[in-house]
Amino acid sequence: MVDTNTSSIQLDINRHRAPHITRRSRSSPGSSVQVGTARQCGTPHARHAGKRPQPWRSFRHPTGLHATHGDFAMNAGPVCRRSIPAVRRFVRHLRHLSTIAGFIAAGLVPAATAAEPPADPLIIAETRVVHSAILGQDRRISVYLPRMGTGSNENGPFPVLYLLDGERQLPLVAGQIDYLSKINLSMPQMIVVGIDTNGYDRLHDLTPTHSDRADPDSPIVTGPSSPTRTSGGGEIFLRFLGEELVPYVDRHYRTAPFKVLAGHSLGGLLTVHALLRQPRMFDAYVAISPSLWWDDESLILGAGPYLGSGRLAGKRLFLSISGEGGKFHDGLARFDGLLKAHASSGLAFRYREYPDETHASGPVAAYYDAWKFLFPAWLSPTTDDTPQKTDAFYAEQSRRYGYRIVPPEGIVNGRGYAALRSGRAADALGFFRMNIANYPGSANAFDSLGDAYVQSGAASRAMACYRRALALAPSSEDTRRKLVRLKDSGGTADASGCDPEGSGTHGTPAAHVPSRAIRR
Predict the structure, then answer these.
(1) What is the pLDDT of residues 230-279, one digit of tens each?
(2) Which site from 211, 220, 223, 399 is most exposed, i.e. has the minimal number of CB atoms within 10 Å?
(3) What Pfam families does UniProt report for this protein, alphabetically (predicted)?
(4) What's the rounded Cα separation, in Å, for the pair 312 and 332?
(5) What DSSP string runs through 335-376?
(6) Does the global pTM surpass 0.90?
(7) How far apart are CA 451 and CA 469, in angstroms?
(8) Contact 230, 197 (CB under 8 A)
């Protein structure tokens, strides 16, 4: 698979602007108000016979107003009697402009200012076009990367969510993950790979078998005119995912081994099919309103042997249905019963119904419940107010998901200062030492440890930490001021360094790598 192009998906957040209503007149050195373009003055006077119209000739009206064709100005000039109607239009425009000015003054219309800088777009994903030898075509993917901020682990690695119908689903799903992982800390940060189907043969890609029915209640239609004539290419599409796309993402991004496949509608159908037929490809599967009615429920009818094979042990499946009703709902209910009958398979699953939602709105609630199911520990009330409890929590999550999850620097730093404010100096030192062990290239980690030493009365150690922070971030004026203040009070830096005894006592040091999840 070859990467042929990279661009970005962005949310345009440019501010609304008032219409541009001021311009310098082309007929006058003074300023004018452009409110429209009057007709050219095609004068009938004999002296102009056979000549081109004079678009910039102007006239003086007895009222004293002056106008030029194309712009309106307040200057004198020769009269063009045919342009009297332009004055009437000018007066009407002046009234209109006075109304706009009133709205601007009232704050109802935002006034544009020359000094206002252009607004920057909010980038939510980067898009890449990759070539698939298996499919014999270029495919477009959109990749959301965890953004830096409070609670962020800038080093990775990150688990990966592969999202079918990415052009529709990615803004919703990436927004939820970004918010929950960074603000509420309700789930780990993840890379989201949206796999576009718009512009491709979606029916071919997302259906594992061929069917002559386009929906649960439609008649069978065969032949060249059948709307489902290209269906049944899901197995080939799964080969593309497993053999080409997943290795491509692993090469280009800092990925963890934990992988999730998610899809809605026909995407949900392929997701359940992948769980049954290719359980080793992903660790968890999220199927929102899956079209299990497809091909007269052939997936449900053939699921028994796969559920009893023992190959699903340790896998996770989230299923949901909205208010579709009819055969759509009945198939999901039967499959839920089949899963319960094979409880010994070792598959962890959850089935949710949202009867008040539609097929289109259901994913909003369902994806959120899926994250709660896949990452339950993150949503539990936490009392990890000591370094030991924090270490234990992330060690348990690392064991559960199969990769080392580093305590995020921002979370640990916040807990350290909370301990410092409550007088628990030993815990504060433990938290800040944890960050130094996990993020040895972070100036903030050394600066924070210096603050803890100041409060503990160890000024010489604090100075050594501040010096280390300045070596990593020479432009930090706040750290420099704190170091100068200690020097002025007669302090000297500890010759043995910032923290020769405690560094590394909490957590396992992680290699420092550049920011973001992109491999360099």
Answers:
(1) 999 999 999 999 999 999 999 999 999 999 999 999 999 999 999 999 99
(2) 223
(3) Esterase (PF00756)
(4) 19
(5) HHHHHHHTGGG--EEEEEE-TTS-TTTHHHHHHHHHHHHH-H
(6) no
(7) 12
(8) no
